[in-house]
């Protein structure tokens, strides 16, 4: 049994993905979960107790397969995980904002829970169009720590590479 555990640890250590993405499919929607597996930049981790708002953006894309043309994007959004420290109460306000709307909000009193919220926020629920609910789908996600410009001209982002999860088409049970 210990050789099996050692082999699994070796496989995990060799994995180059910095973002773990999981997708649960229900009849009408997808629940997309993600977890950041790499260390956050020091600039982000060191400012969590300063009172500044810290955020990590998770751009998400859902594609459905077409036969003769490139896959069609059926949903596009950004899940923003934010943490703000309130020095008066000593608590952290954690929010998950999807496409500008707050979907989940919670207050925690520990730095560890606040960091966990940033790196592994709650699942994002994506409604599926009727015609694409049983289709072959691809879900793409990445984490973006910061974005800005270099020399006021060239856009720059610091984050992970895109991770893709494929969902096989479901057969009709009827």
From TrEMBL:
Question: One Pfam family of this protein, by short name?
Answer: DUF4390
Q: Which domain of life is it from?
A: Bacteria
What is the protein name for this chain?
Answer: DUF4390 domain-containing protein
Q: Which organism is it from?
A: Candidatus Sulfomarinibacter kjeldsenii
């Amino acid at each position: 049994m210990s050789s099996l555990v050692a082999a699994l640890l070796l496989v995990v250590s060799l994995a180059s993905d910095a973002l773990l993405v999981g997708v649960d499919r229900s009849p009408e929607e997808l629940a997309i979960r993600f977890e950041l597996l790499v260390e956050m930049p020091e600039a982000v981790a060191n400012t969590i107790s300063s009172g500044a708002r810290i955020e990590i953006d998770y751009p998400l894309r859902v594609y459905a397969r077409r036969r003769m043309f490139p896959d069609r994007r059926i949903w596009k959004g950004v899940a923003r995980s934010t943490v703000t420290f309130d020095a008066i109460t000593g608590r952290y306000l954690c929010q998950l904002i999807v496409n500008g709307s707050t979907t989940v909000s919670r207050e925690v009193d520990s730095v560890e829970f606040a960091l966990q919220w940033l790196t592994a926020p709650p699942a994002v629920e994506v409604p599926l169009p009727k015609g694409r609910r049983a289709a072959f789908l691809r879900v793409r996600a990445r984490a973006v720590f910061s974005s800005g410009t270099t020399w006021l001209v060239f856009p720059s982002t610091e984050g992970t590479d895109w991770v893709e999860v494929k969902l096989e088409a479901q057969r009709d049970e009827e």
